[in-house]
Amino acid sequence: MDKNIPLIRKLGAFIALSESELSFLASLHKRRRTFAVGSDLVHQGQPDQAAYVLDSGWACSYKLLENGQRQIVDFQIPGDFLGLRSLLLNVSDHGIEPVTDIKVTKICATDFLNALEHTPRLATAVLWAMSCDEATVVERLVDVGRRNSTERVAHFLLELGARLTLVGLGSTDGYACPLTQYLLADALGLSAVHVNRVLRQLREEGMVTFQNGFVDFDNYDQLVNFAGFEQSYMDKAGQLRY
Description:
Number of strands: 10
CATH superfamily of the largest domain: Jelly Rolls
Strand content: 15-25%
Low-confidence stretches: 236-242
Shape: globular
CATH class of the largest domain: Mainly Beta
Order of helices and strands: HHEEEEEHEEHHHEHHEEHH
Helix content: 40-55%
CATH topology of the largest domain: Jelly Rolls
Number of helices: 10
Radius of gyration: 18 Å
CATH architecture of the largest domain: Sandwich
C-alpha cells in the first residue's frame, strides 16, 4: 500500500506500521465514495451513521441551531476521520459537508470494532490521532474565547499548516488552502469583513500572505511568536511513536 496516503502518514506518525497493519488499512479502502460540494456527507441527527476517512479534498463539520444559524466546529483535511464518534453514539451530533469535491473511504461499525479487536497497535494509533484532533478543537475554543481577532486568525493558519505537514501536504513555507474568508469567519466567530482586514494586517506586517488559494508564511517564526502558537499538543505524535 502506498505509504504516502494521508491516513498512512498520519497513523504512521504514532506507530511504525507493520505489513499486516498496512494490509488491514488497504482492505478499508475498498469502499470508496465521492461527494461534490453542496452535497452533505452527514446530516446532524442522522441515525445509524457510518464513519469515513477523508482521502482527498477538504470538508467541514458544523452544528445547526434552531434558528438556522450555523457554527463550523472544525475543518477536515486528507487523513482525518469523519463522523467516527457516531459509530459509538449511533447518531450524528453534527453535520459534515464538503468544502471541495472529496473522496472518502467508508468505515462500518463492524470494521472499526474488528480493528480494535485484531490490531491493537493500530487501534492505539487511532486513539492518539483522535486525541490530537480533539486538542485542535480545544484550541479553537481558546481562539474564540480568549485570543483577539488577529491572534485568532494567525493561530488558526499555523495550526492548519501543522496538521497538513503531518500528512505531507504542507510545510513551514506554506500550503494550499481552499477556505474562503466566509468559512474562516464562520469557524472563528468573526465577520468576513473582519477576516479580510486581519489578513491584510498580517500581510502588511510581513508575517503571512493568504491569497489565490495559498497560504505563504512570509516570516514563520515571527508569526509563531505573535500567535503564541505552541505546537506540543500536535508534536506528541513523534514523541510517542513506537
